[in-house]
Amino acid sequence: MLLLRVKNLVIAALILVFAGSCRKVITLDLHSATPKLVVEADVTDRAGGCQVLLSRTVDFQKDNSFPPVSGASVTITDNAGASTVLQETSPGTYTSSLLGLTGVTYQLQIISGTDTVTGTSTMPVLVNFDSLFVTNDQIFGNTWKLANVAYTDPSDPGHYYQFVQWVNGVKVTQIYTADNELTAGRPQDIKLYLDPNTKDKNKIKKGDDITVEMQCLDEGAHKYWFSAQQSASGNSQNAVPANPVTNLKGNALGYFSVHTSQTRSIVAP
Amino acid sequence: MKSRSKGETLIGATVRADGSGGSVTNEYGFYSISLPAGSHELEFSAVGLLTRELTVNLTRDTSVNIFLNDDNKSLDEVTVTASSRRRSLSSPQMGLDHVSTSEIKNVPVLLGERDPIKVITLLPGIKSAGEGNTGFNVRGGAADQNLILLDEAPVYNASHLLGFFSTFNSDAIKDINVYKGGMPAQYGGRLSSVLDIKMNDGNNQDYNVSGGVGVISAKLNVEGPIQKDRSSFLFSARRTYADVFLKLSNDSTINSNTLYFYDLNAKLNYILGDKDRLYLSGYFGQDKLGVGKLFGLDWGNGTGTLRWNHIFSNKLFSNTSLIFSNYNYKIHINSGGYDLNIFSQIRDWNIKEELQWYADSRSTLRMGVNAIYHEIRPGEVTPTSANSGINESILQRRHSLENAVYLSDTWKATDDLNITYGGRLTGFSILGKGDFYDIDPVSGKVTDTLRYSDGQVVKTYLNFEPRVAAALQLNATTSVKASYVRNVQNLHLLANSTSSSPTDKWVASTNIIKPEISDQVSLGYYKNLPGNVYELTVETYYKTMQHQVDYRDGADVFSNTNAIESELLFGKGRAYGIEWLLRKRVGRMTGWVSYTLSKTEKLIDGINNDRWYNATQDRTHDIAIVAMYKLNRKWSLSANWVYTTGNAVTFPAGKYRSGDQVLFYYTERNGYRMPAYHRLDLGATCQLRQKKRFSSELAFSVYNAYARQNAYTIEFQQDPDDAQKTQAVRTALFGLIPSISYNFKF
């Protein structure tokens, strides 16, 4: 994971240095696909964190406005049998005041037209987000300011993490995941690398507001984000392109993630 | 047979008796010919050397050692120089291409770095795995299905600088053969091809020093007798110096980076009397890539071969080889709280005994035994400081024993019909100690763990590989050939990304990963066109492949699990095509035109709804035109042009939102094509002053002469300037790249 990220960065940098390669935006004739239901289902341990978004895929050439799916029945049931029906508060957005509790497994059920989608996810133990800091890193002649997340990995196996980064309120379109396969029991310092092709205006500068959310999630939800980063983010260098491995059953893309949420902010020095 | 000036043994030289029939020297220059008692006219010939004729009066078995002189005349007159060995019309061997060192020397290449692997990809049926990639695909096979041998030792990673150059230093190489089909029984272990590279033996007549300085590398080659006529040495070294330019920078973030490779080839050989000869050869290469102290990746191959040729009699030739080969990589990371090393290795000990028996004038037998002990260390992570954020983790070492016996007979059934038949029996034994797993084929989850102790046999796979080939000579200039070959492969390279990486993983067959098996039938038509100036070769093939291995979607290739099978899927493949090669071997202008029309498909359980789909390397059309022209004594020119259909690739059909960012929606595997790839390269070589012993030349080359922006990758991303848009971005690696190099010899 960590290695993979460093390796990609090195190869990208190497290709740029070695060959002075040339990048160009091109037009491709891509097929169109029948729109498919997309589920983004999150339950967190924070108020206002229970939200299910339903939308549909659009063709590549179209704008990034994804048609919401209204009128669905969305239910979340815990392993004690208590059900919560989510209310559609705006088109395609279904919410509830449900709070996720440690160790509880939740079952999601969505009925939309003829589609039924189900999924399960468990709230893991919280691992404390110890600190957020910014370092200056030298990468092939350039200095990059990068955010770092510090926490201590528990010594038992099976902990998974996701980090979400915002710079000046704008979400960085990178997926950062981690597991504790190799790092159990050790203090961690995760460097949130930026895409080597990031434009200068989008790099972190002195005085920028940086916010990072640390999520502890279960294996199935982690697998979704890990595989999304590997094979569905449009970068063909990591792996053969494919849809992420979903933890949902039924004819849909997306995920069901019950996770902790801790957020820290810092002004880049 | 040997060359007079260098004492190098001649491979594939011909011996003809009384103007017909005859024999070809083997890889050690040995030949045997059976004739009735009496007087015979023998004719000895080899490319670039003067033909010699000899009359022998045979009364009993006789040894005739032949030295051929350099053909200086043809060089001066620039009229007739054969560029390579003639392919044989009568031999049942098909699917064989031979590349000569002069072709390697003349084909223009990237940054002037002569590279045998780049030259073979210009032949029909052999496709480069892509720009900046040393891998190649033969008749639809994957890049790990090529058996690459350097003096009989397998080379596990033939690439330098992440694939921009190959590990083979053309100065040290004597002979290259590529078998695309109809592999003889002495080769086994890979499905798709055998690339057999022989190093020079070293001149046992005289000292020679040659070398060169190019844009990115310098090399030096020294050879000479240790004891004249009896023993010789060869030493060849090459190093790139891209990092020297980095060092020139005042910027410490640049000059602290490393980026280079070097390789060394060495060979000693001793003639121990009339009947025995010993060879010791070795290769060592290393790549170093580092980003300051932050990250380092070193990788390299080492091989060693000790060979003993023994002539038991005029009809029985023996070769015994002890072979070692090693590939490893090391990664160092010192980043933030992570200080660690990662190490991985594959290592072979290999013993081989082969007999060649020239039974009578109709039959030549080859038989042998081979045992290889493989040790694989898949991955070992060790922290290098006490407060490193990582734990020590050592994956189980894997041990296996690959045994083979083989026998083949090349039989002259009639004057026009030659048949080679035989087979290879391989036994692959997976040895303990270690844990092996039962895996649920659908979920990939481990259902049971089986524990084996040291040396215990986990499983043995026995496979018989029949090899049959026949050639029917229709007339003096035409023949047809047919062959069937089965190959079995027990070492598999797991590569998840589209580009190759030094960290791709070699795994041996296990209880779950079955030996890969391929069956190939091919048919060929061979014609020498008027005056023997042109050779036309047309071959067609159909190949099936079983037990192919692929990663599951979302597999973690750096996963630290011993149960690697839980990340894999299995399936099969098929490939078929037709290959045309028109070659001009003699004259001022030499070269070839090659065209391949082919199809390669895969069916992997769990991918693309279990339907057949185009393999990545499926490229419908593949054309190469190579021309070399000797203008005068001073200048020779060369050009090559390649055109191939783009790789089959997976592009998105749509997109969707996931966690406030856009992901791409894929509906089918490899449903699209990269844009067609084409490129023209030009080269020119200027002979500088030629004194008694000293000669030198300047070689110029232009890579990608019309600066075609060939797509290396096409990636999809959010438009950085418009949050509502996504875009496709093409990366092209190289524009027009000129280079110059200086080579000398004395």
Task: Characterise this structure.
The complex is a heterodimer of chains A (269) and B (746). Chain A has two domains: 2-24 and 125-249 and 259-267, no CATH class; 37-122, Immunoglobulin-like. In chain A, 44% of the residues are buried. The mean pLDDT of chain A is 89. Chain A starts with a helix and ends with a strand. With 269 residues, chain A is mainly β. Chain A is 12% helix and 45% strand. Chain A is globular and about 55 Å long. By secondary structure, chain B is mainly beta. Chain B has two domains: 2-77, Carboxypeptidase-like, regulatory domain (Immunoglobulin-like, Sandwich), CATH 2.60.40; 96-745, TonB-dependent receptor, beta-barrel domain (Maltoporin, Chain A, Beta Barrel), CATH 2.40.170. Helices cover 4% and strands 58% of the residues of chain B. Chain B contains five helices and 49 strands. In chain B, strand 34 (516-528) and strand 35 form a beta hairpin. Chain B is globular, with a radius of gyration of 26 Å. Classes of the chains: A mainly beta (269), B mainly beta (746). Chains A and B meet through helix 1, strand 1, strand 3, strand 4 and strand 11 of A and strand 22, strand 42, strand 43, strand 47 and strand 48 of B.
Notable features of this structure?
heterodimer; A: 269 residues; mainly beta; Immunoglobulin-like; 2 domains; 5-stranded mixed beta sheet; 5-stranded antiparallel beta sheet; 2 helices; B: 746 residues; Maltoporin, Chain A; 22-stranded antiparallel barrel; 5 helices; 4% helix; globular
